[in-house]
Every structure is written in structure tokens, then in C-alpha cells.
Amino acid sequence: MSVNERLLKLEEFAADVREFTRILTEITRRHGERIDEHDSQMTELRSSMTALTDAQIKTEDALRRLTEKVDRIADRNGNGKA
Asked: What is the mean pLDDT of the chain?
């Protein structure tokens, strides 16, 4: 293999390395963006889950209080449980 052929192969190799580096850089950038988006969505999900949990607790508490009131009214009216 002549010097010129070797030089040509080295230039081709360098071009391939540059292209692979460009591709890898793009993949890494996109991966970082996806991770950032995922983190943002997880934060929103946690917030939504907390709000849902709080609402469920309030609903259960309101239902309990309502049931107690209905039971008291029924007891006062002589319609209590047997």
C-alpha cells in the first residue's frame, strides 16, 4: 500500500470518526432532553397523585361524617339498626 493510499484511508477513517462523533453527540443531546422531559412529567405526576390522595382522604372523611349524621338521625327517629 502506497503512502497516498494510506493517507486516503486515514482521511476516510477520520471522516468516519467525525460522523460517528456527530451522531453520538446528537444521540446524547436527545437522551438528555428525554430525561429532562421525563423528570418534568414525574414531578407533575407526583403532584397529581398527591392531590388525588388528598381528595380521596377528604371524600372518605366527608362520607364518614355523613354516615354518622344519617345514623344519628335514624336513631333519633326510631329507625336505628336492629
From this structure: 94
